[in-house]
Design brief:
Heme Oxygenase, Chain A; about 140 residues; about 0% strand; mainly alpha; 6 helices
Length: about 140
């Protein structure tokens, strides 16, 4: 998620809030960040950025569920769950909704840009998770 957050902030020009939370979590858990792969191009038009923001802000809904479980396991701010705390409690999703409603369904070009932005963000999330799964050590039976 850290790699996606860094690239998301680069693509959308968002301040490094999500990546900072995730950097703190990586530090708390003594884990290295996933390195960049290639360069990060800007997302482009405002509608495309809305698509990217839809993906990041939408993930806060899942973070709310995960946060409860993380807290039960003893994770919290400073203990590997800074991102979940910040992301789950932020109002990004609520602030994005009015902007998404302003996209007019009959404006095919802007809607296509928004969909393309969301698809690009989802593809990046998938690629980041695939790369990180490849780095997880496989336990061998002894």
């Amino acid at each position: 998620m850290h790699r996606f957050a860094v690239d998301y902030e680069c693509a959308t020009g968002a301040p490094p809030r999500h990546s900072a939370w995730l950097s703190a979590d990586l530090d708390a858990l003594s884990l290295p960040p996933l390195p960049a792969q290639g360069r990060c191009p800007p997302a482009g038009a405002h509608a495309a950025q809305l698509g990217w923001r839809y993906v990041m802000a939408g993930s806060s809904l899942g973070a709310r569920v995960l946060l409860r479980d993380a807290r039960r396991l003893g994770f919290g701010p400073g203990r590997g769950a800074d991102f979940l705390e910040g992301h789950a409690l932020a109002d990004d999703w609520a602030r994005l909704q009015p902007q998404l409603r302003q996209l007019e369904a009959d404006d095919a070009a802007r809607m296509a840009d928004a969909v393309a932005g969301a698809r690009a963000a989802f593809a990046l999330v998938h690629a980041c998770f695939e790369r990180s799964f490849q780095l997880i050590p496989v336990a061998t039976a002894t």
